[in-house]
Amino acid sequence: MARRRRLVIVIGAVLAMLVVGAVVAFTIAGGGPAGNSDAADETPTSIPGQEVDNTNPPGDAPTSLPLPPTDDDPLVTRPLPKSGAAEGELVPGFPSDLLPTPAGATVISSSVATEGDHMQAGVAATSTLTPGEVVAFYRAAYASLGLTDRPTNAIPGSSAYAFSRGDNTITLTVTPAESGSAFSLFGAFRAG
Questions:
Q1: How many Cα atoms occupy the beta-carbon half-sphere of 126 within 13 Å?
Q2: Which of 27, 31, 41, 145 has its CA 20 to 30 A from that of 110?
Q3: Is the Cβ–Cβ distance between 165 and 147 less than 8 Å?
């Protein structure tokens, strides 16, 4: 009986949040309070303690900012590089724009494998950066490419993150090391 009561309370709370969200969305969309459609047209001229900048009213916002990339913008285009592997350096044709290494990192190995419109690439390296700094480096690099990240499963003592956009995924695994960290990147891409 207590379980059923908790379930009813949870469902009620979710429904209440949906109703409040719909009211807020309706108000923001210009419906405003009942019979007051002029409320959305009002522009404040002053806020206590602050000056209001009316030089760019809401409808005249600057449009010079670039739009973020979308799933339709390919990360990889043809021709794809030849398959290969290298020790201690990046293999020729390695997609370092998609799998960059932080400044001062030491490459242990790298590889590229292509078939049709698919490419897989990987790199293992070490860095004097801490694991947190390595993760921050890749989050910043991949945010600019429109990739989103989420933590994923990793071996004990390591952290792993999956970055994705459309058919493209990159997995970063970072492990603390004596003088910084060791990390690996593995990317699977589809040419657009």
A1: 9
A2: 145
A3: yes
Rounded to two decimals, what is the model's pTM? 0.64
Query: CB–CB of 178/117 below 8 Å?
Result: no
Work out the percent of the chain whose per-residue pLDDT is above 70: 63
Write a three-state SS string for the chain: CHHHHHHHHHHHHHHHHHHHHHHHHHHHCCCCCCCCHHHHHCCCCEECCEECCCCCCHHHCCCCCCCCCCCCCCCCCCCCCCCEEEECCCCCCCCCCCCCCCCCCEEEEEEEEEECCEEEEEEEEEECCCHHHHHHHHHHHHHCCCCEEEEECCCCCCEEEEEEECCEEEEEEEEEECCEEEEEEEEEEECC
**Are residues 97 and 121 in contact, defined by beta-carbon separation less than 8 angstroms?**
no
Mind listing the pLDDT tens digit for each residue in 115-139? 999 999 999 999 999 999 999 999 9
Tokens coding 140: 């910043």
59-87 per-position pLDDT tens digit: 554 555 555 566 678 899 999 999 999 99
Q: How far is CA 136 from the centre of its chain?
A: 12
Q: How confident is the model at residue 20 (pLDDT cuts 50, 70, 90)?
A: very low
